[in-house]
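Title: Comparing notes on inverse folding

I've been comparing how different people in this forum approach sequence design from structure. To keep things fair, I'm posting one structure and asking everyone to reply with a full sequence. Here's the target:
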């Protein structure tokens, strides 16, 4: 795995601490250090991709696997039945604070983020 100096690359490589809940050759999932809900897991590609703007057609399967991992983790955390939110922020104005593509899985309570449609 090629490494970059970003914190998420370091977590995926095992050189920065995180409570990892899932990892395979392409994806790592870990608990957010500043959770916004009782369950707040970040799902990242192990390969560095800055944001959704940097995705290409060749990344379609990876993105699908990230979402399927989120669904599996929602089941593992027993939040699938009542519901959960998946968020992928892109760019500064979109709320992305770490320049490494990541999908937020939030649940365990009613999520009020102002985007209920």
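Reply #1:
Here's my take.
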């Amino acid at each position: 795995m090629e490494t970059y100096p970003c914190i998420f690359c370091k977590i995926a490589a095992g050189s920065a601490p995180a409570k990892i809940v899932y990892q395979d050759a392409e994806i790592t999932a870990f608990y957010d250090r500043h959770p916004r809900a009782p369950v707040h897991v970040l799902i990242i590609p192990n390969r560095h991709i800055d944001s959704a703007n940097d995705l290409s057609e060749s990344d379609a399967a990876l993105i699908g696997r990230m979402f399927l991992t989120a669904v599996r983790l929602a089941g593992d955390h027993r939040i699938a039945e009542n519901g959960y939110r998946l968020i992928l922020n892109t760019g500064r104005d979109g709320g992305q604070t770490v320049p490494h593509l990541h999908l937020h899985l939030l649940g365990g309570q009613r999520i009020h983020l102002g985007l209920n449609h």
